[in-house]
Amino acid sequence: MLRKTKAIYRFLRARFNRSLGAFVMVLAGISYLAGWITGIQSFVLICVGFALILYRKRNPETEEERSPDRAEPEPRIVAQNPNYALIQLWAEKLHDEGIPTEIRDEFMGSILSQPGRNYSEIKLLVPARFEKRARDILQN
Fold first, then answer.
1. Using CA atoms in the order 56, 62, 66, 67, what is the torsion angle rounded to 10 degrees?
2. Do the beta carbons of residue 101 and residue 93 sit within 8 Å?
3. Domain that holds residue 17
4. Which residues pair with 102 in a beta bridge?
5. Does 34 share its domain with 89?
6. Which of 129, 124, 111, 33 is nearest to 78 (CA)?
7. Is 124 in contact with 101 (CB distance < 8 Å)?
8. Count of other CB atoms within 10 angstroms of residue 118
9. 35: helix, strand or coil
C-alpha cells in the first residue's frame, strides 16, 4: 500500500498541472464535506481537477514527427476499374496478404476536371511501400 501511495505521489508531483489538478480535487472534496459548496459545484471542481491531471502540453519534438514533411508518401494506384464489386474483391485479396488498401471513387472529380474520361472510374490504392507486391498479387 505504501509503494502505491508513493508512486501516485511521484506521478502527481512530476508535472505542475497534475499537482494543481490533485489540489483542486482534494479542495473540492473537503469543501463538500465541510458544507461550503453543494454537490454539483463539487462535482464540477472534481471534473476540472481530473481534466488538469490528464492535460498534456504539446511537445515540439513530437510535433516534428507528425509534420507533413515526414508523412508517408501519397498512396499509389494499383488498379482502376468501373466495377465496384471487382475493386472490392481485389481489396479483400490484398487485405488477406496483409496489405492495407484504400478505395476512391472520384466520380465528381472526373466529371468536373477531366471530361471525356470514364466517369465511374474507381481506384484501388495502397501505400507506396506495398505497391510492387500489390501489383504482383493482382497480376497472378
1. 110
2. no
3. 2-63
4. 125
5. no
6. 124
7. yes
8. 11
9. coil
| Grid coordinates of 28 | 473540492
- The whole model's pTM is what? 0.44
Q: What does each of the 140 residues of the chain score in pLDDT, given as a tens digit?
A: 788 888 887 888 878 888 888 899 999 999 999 999 988 999 999 999 888 888 877 655 555 555 555 566 788 999 988 888 888 889 999 988 889 998 887 655 445 555 555 556 788 999 999 999 999 998 88
Structure-block grid coordinates of residue 95:
487485405
User: Quick check: 102 and 123 in contact, CB under 8 A?
Assistant: no
> What residues form DSSP beta bridges with 79?
124
Of 101, 112, 108, the closest CA to residue 79 belongs to: 101
Mark whether 49 and 99 lie in a shared domain.
no
